Structures are given as structure tokens and as C-alpha cells.
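The instructor's notes for this session suggest beginning with a concrete chain rather than abstract definitions. Hand out the sequence below and ask the class to guess, before any prediction is shown, which regions might be ordered.
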Amino acid sequence: MTLREYILSLSQHYRVNIRTAVNANELGLNGMHVRCLHVIANAPDCTANYIVKNMGRDKAQIARLVKEMIGKGWIEKQASREDKRSQILS
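After discussion, reveal the predicted structure:
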């Protein structure tokens, strides 16, 4: 890849990321929402505890974040088939 191609590729990635950030901001999403949604989308049978371990945040912070996202209708929770105490997020 030439320097010119590299710069063009870098600027394209920058534009895409800026558009994504602006669209997320208009929806009321912040970085933690986006990271959490990414974890949920990529983990089968995702639980809040899985998010805590994956993101390295404390349980209370993730609990508030999950509750907020459920309230906004961005995610849903349902009881786990294996352990009825666990809630699966999707």
C-alpha cells in the first residue's frame, strides 16, 4: 500500500467513525452504551455479569446502564433457561 492509499484509507475510516459518533449522539448513545451493546451483540446468552467481566467495570455501573437501555427499549432481558436467577440480554 502506498502512502497516498494509506492516507485515503485512514481518512475514509475517520469519516465513517465521525458519522457513527454523530448518529449515536443524536440517539442519546454514549461510549459506554455503544461498548455494552457491542458486547451484548457478540455474546450468546449475554448476562450483566458477563458485561462486567468483559468491560472491567463495577456491577453497579453496569446494572444502571442495563436498566437504562432496557427502559429506552434498546435491549431486552429474559430469564435464562439454565439458571432462572440469571437474565439473558439481547
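Then share the key points. The two ends are 40 Å apart (CA to CA). The mean pLDDT is 85.
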